[in-house]
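User: I'm preparing a small set of examples for a lab meeting where we compare how different chains pack in three dimensions. I only have the primary sequence for this one, and I'd like the structure in token form so I can line it up with the others. Please keep the answer compact; I'll paste it straight into my notes.
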Amino acid sequence: MADRVPLLNHDDEEPPAGRRSPRVASLDVFRGLSVFLMMLVDYGGSIFPIIAHSPWNGLHLADFVMPFFLFIVGVSLALVYKKVTNRVEATWKAVARVLKLFLLGVLLQGGYLHGISSLTYGVDIERIRWFGILQRIAIAYIVTALCEIWLSQRTSRQWHFVQSYYWHWSLAIFLSVIYVALSYGLYVPDWQFEVTSSSGSTFYSVKCSVRGDLGPACNAAGMIDRYVIGNNHLYAKPVYRNLKDCNMSTSGQVSDNSPSWCHASFDPEGILSSLTAAVTCIIGLQYGHVLANLQDSKRRLDNWFLFSASLSVPGIFLALVGVAVNKSLYTVSYMLITSSAAGVTFCALYLLVDVYGYRQLTSLLEWMGKHSLSIFVLVTSNVAVIALQGFYWKVPENNIIHWIVTLVVRS
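Assistant: Understood. Below is the structure token output for the 411-residue chain.
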């Protein structure tokens, strides 16, 4: 399944100073476009694999959804916390919002609600998925919000892009360095795991004994999650099962003669990759600073295009020298390239909507952007699917959803 990510709307909460920032239509349109892409790759990815998530290294359309949303969250936070009169109060409000977002993510993606082909409710607490899309948003949100509340230099009347926010850049670099050090420096030993099914339990062994491996079997990100979160609490259907090595059938089952790691759980929203995901949000925050502090459209666009280019160059260079562009690991090259793409997309939408005024052309996307959280809940909780499944012909299996799934599998 693709990334289903609701975004903080910059008008969703009052700025600490008690006055709302003027609404930027292109930000809502960008959020709505991301919601549309989310649904497109979710429901169209099984029919057109080229738009679904890349099984491991590489970039497909679905791989841009999560960075786009994180980027927009960062832009929004710059508007929300443009004026902070009470840092402690603002911090508590941010923490409360994050806790709500995290708990909502556990409810929606922890395994409590049933899927299209699994009409069962409830989740075994020993196997609940603690990390997911909303949980990643929550982590990136709190890191970026605290960064904006406590690390911004607001003493000078004249705004300066670097001087006012050099602590933000320092934090982004620090998180990236920590990510790289752990990814390449941690030793990953051989490991074992158990898979439980209706027919019993099966034990698998994975041989690693390596350092700095970025493959699906022996990467440091997976090892950290297994130790800290626990193998039973990770995502049970990782996208790397679509690799040819895993020989996955059309019914979604991994072949018995596949490598052992193909049967393992792996969470693309795990602990280590959350570091670079937070950097994407901090980058979006800097675009938001330009939006909040500069009133001239040309100066805004000049700054954004320059910034986007400065992100793409090192990202492409890292990719060319062998640093994999990988969404599941959220590698530094992936973070830089997708952040640059988000910046360029935002520039184009700002030019189209806020500068040239083509709001009627994008009115549907703007509406979707304003109601992104509601759309996310409806899609992720399968409320629409449940409603359709409630109507059947003679037996429960004869419903519209069942027919669509059967048609997709056969195709």
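A couple of notes for your slides: Residues 1-5, 11-21 have pLDDT under 50 and may be disordered. Strands lie at 187-188, 191-197, 200-206, 210-211.

User: Perfect, thanks.
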